[in-house]
Every structure is written in structure tokens, then in C-alpha cells.
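Hi Y.,

Following your request, here is the sequence exactly as I used it, all 343 residues.
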Amino acid sequence: MRAVIGVLALVMGLAEPAAGLWSPVNEPGQGDGIEVLAAGDDALYAGTFRGFVFSSQDHGSTWALVAEGLPDSPWAPVGSVVQAGDWLVVSRESDADRNYRSARVGGVWQTWQPLAFQDDSLSNLRAQGGMLFASIGGRPYRSSDMGDTWTPLADPAGAYLYRVFPAGPYLIGVEDQINSGGIFRSEDDGETWIEITGPITSSYLCAMTVFDGELLLSVYHYGGVGTLWRSPDWGAGWLQVTNLPSGWRNLNGLAVSGSLLALGASGETDGQTVFLTWDLVSYQPYTGDLPPFARPVNELLVQDGWLFKSGGSVTHYRAPLPTLIFGDGFEVGDTSAWSGAVP
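Below is the corresponding structure, written out as C-alpha cells. Let me know if you'd prefer a different format.
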């Protein structure tokens, strides 16, 4: 973490008043609600209840169908959308017509084509390099051909992996319940694993991300207690983040935008559920004008300098994020530069 920051200013990406920080994300179709949001390198993507995929170039204000080729259905909710370079892969939770991909040619997404694999839906879809990872039937798999075929990942000795997440040069795998062991790391796409659970026991994973070169894990312990852990060496050692403003609440959302980390709590702490930090020391409440029914966080997502949240209601909300500008002056922990700069 940084020892000295310097003069710090927060500049809003949009000149929006504090009272208008958060706004609902518009739905892309008539009555076709958003099931999942995904961040792409060129747009925000939304998978809908009827099984379509839309893109937005203006942070969810307006939407356009990504491409033709997805069959219409009264019930085929999109469970996962992921961009892997010039490929977009979608999985729908239906009995047929589940899994599709589209290729980007000359900046234009082409007609959706069904994957050869249609035996089950793909959940927790992730991409790293030319590899896809997903949970199929509650077990983690990988694909090296953009979803046509899937290979089950090896299980660590005595463990039963439930989900995997690309993180830096590694793949992180977790069991459904993290007890005496349950968190593992692989450097060969899931062929072999080493255990990195350390002190993170009697819990299950809520969220994971990489921030400022460190692996961050948020876990939930029984009895309404959650903790946040950081590791500068990809799980070889862990330090608990003990000064969270949401201390006893579990954090379901972790999302990174440049030098900022957004944290989203499941329940309110003094009316706040969303916070920003640049150093895991000082925290700025960013709940703003979220209505009470929309304050609990299930997930946070960052795309193009905007923060998106789900949870507490069926509606997704969005807010522009500030930009950090560094110079000379303040030490870490001095929060005076935040005052009045953001809602």
C-alpha cells in the first residue's frame, strides 16, 4: 500500500449534483428486465429475462441488441455473459437453446451461433486469456475453444471445488464451505492446486478482486459477521482488514476502478452500504441518494468509470465514480480531501 499519497483531489466524471448521484439503469426492452450486467472493453452488456443480450455505450441509458440469432422465449433468463477479446459468450437458464457466442469482426458483433455444448447452462462464466472457466452442475470446468468443449478441473486432494476465479497470473478455486481448508491457487489453469486458506476459516466466499496488486477476499462467517482479507503474494500470506466502516456486515460487492476500490455491504451501517477507498485505510460513504429498498448490495460492477449495483430490489442502479489525482502533500489516512468533493 502507498506510504505517502500527496495532494489528492476528487474530480467527478460528470458535473452532477450530490442529490442526483444514483439513478436506475434503464431496461433495454419493453418489460424484458435485466438479469445480469457485464463489463466489456467497449460497452456495458445486459442479459435479460427473455434471453437476449443488449449493449450500451452510455452507461445504461440506452440499449441496442448486440446481434441477431438468439431465439425469442417467454422464459430463458440469461445467467452469464462474458467477453473474451473478440468473443462474447452467453448462457441462458433454459431447457434448450442455452449457450451461444458471437464474434466481433471490424468492431461489429456477428450473428449469435450456438455452442456445440448444450447439455447444461454455464454459471459463473469467467475469461482469462484464451481460456473460459465456468461452473457446470456445481463443478468448475475450463474451455480452450470458446465454449464448444469443456474439461473438468482437477480437485485438490481431499477438497471439492465449487467456483473458480482468474486473478492475476493465477486461478483461485474455492469450496462451497471454507472450513479447515477451502481456498486454493493454481498456476496451470486448474491442473494442480496448492492450498492458500491460511486463517480464513469457517466461512464462505462473498466476493473477490485484485486491488493495487493484492488479492482481496470477502467472506461471510456465521452469525451475521463478515471479514475482508488481503494478500500481497497471491495467498501465501493473509492480513485481515480490520478498520472497515461496515465492520460486522459482510461485503457482497468488491469492484475496482483505477486507483479506487468500491465496497458494497449486505446491510446498512448508519444508513450506508456503499463505500470508496484508495488505500483500505480511509473510506468515503458513497450510498448517496439510493432509496432505502435499493441499498443492500448483492454485487458491484465497474465499467468505463461508472459503478453499477444490484441488490435490495429487482432494479439495477448506477453512479459516476470520482477520479483520483495525485500530487504532493497529504499522508495516507488524511481524509480532508474527501470533504465536499463527493456526495
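Residues 1-19, 327-343 have pLDDT under 50 and may be disordered.

Thanks again,
Q.
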